[in-house]
Amino acid sequence: MTSVDILNPSGLKSGSIELPAEIFDVTTNVPLIHQVVVAQLAAARQGTHATKTRGEVRGGGRKPYRQKGTGRARQGSTRAPQFAGGGTVHGPQPRDYSQRTPKKMKAAALRGALSDRARYGRIHVLSAIVEGDKPSTKSAANLLNLLSDRKNLLVVLDRAEEISTLSVRNLADVHVLWADQLNTYDVLCADDIVFTQAALEAFLAGPNQAAKLDKAAAAPAALVDTAAAEATTTEASAEAGGEVTEGGFGADSAAPLDGGASPDPVKFTVKGNKDSMKYHVAGSRWYDATVAEVWFTTAEAAAAAGFEPAGGAKAQQVKEDDK
Known about the structure:
By secondary structure, this protein is α/β, with parallel strands linked by helices. About 30% of the residues lie in helices and about 15% in strands. Strands 2-1-3-6-4-5 form a 6-stranded mixed β-sheet. A 5-stranded mixed β-sheet has the order 7-10-8-9-11. The relative contact order is 0.09.
């Protein structure tokens, strides 16, 4: 493991932390990183470019002159491609540039990019960006200048660090991301990566574990009735097949168990795919072949979370006899 010093807002060492070797000390696969970055940039394209063909340009319905006897080449419309103001041949049309990249490839590319930065000592950890409960862009700039003299910095923060966010958001050449937004492209664009200690812990814990910690911190610990109700819910979900964890899309969503199984087959019956943002109801065409990445109680709950019916609304309207 690589050990990194933890610096306080004054720039002094306040401790150290071990960077896991499985994330910050792996082989950098350059072709894999290239493929993931190309896919990410392609997905960012709007693809709204459009040109008009001769059939879409207004006018040109009348034959410009008679077929024979003029000595000129025969023409049927002034909107043909060879005329000024005519249509465009094989011009760009609206299209979707996004490429489907498996999640394991994205994660492997991110690990390779972080490992490359760690090998050259370009990973920094701070206990906090500023001291106190008041934001200070000047203090944040002075602290970041102490870390590196290189130009481009990527600052990774935890979503709860509002003071730090306000302190660094207006700094030039500083790109700010949440811990759950860290990606290969932004890591490669930055010369140095600066984590806060809370952001690094959230990143290493992963999105599911972070959601569990946030939910546990928000729960009222002093209410005995609430604790008893949660215990009852846990027992019921255990009987149904496992512990129910919120899927990140509200109370009507649940994270899948190992293999994509539903944590409660009676309550959660609608499958959701996070990559395509499509949902499948029980009995629909692709329901059995789809591995759920999130479960919903109803199709309405999935639609409220931003998911669309796979194959259109008609494909997800399953008759009772077909179920």
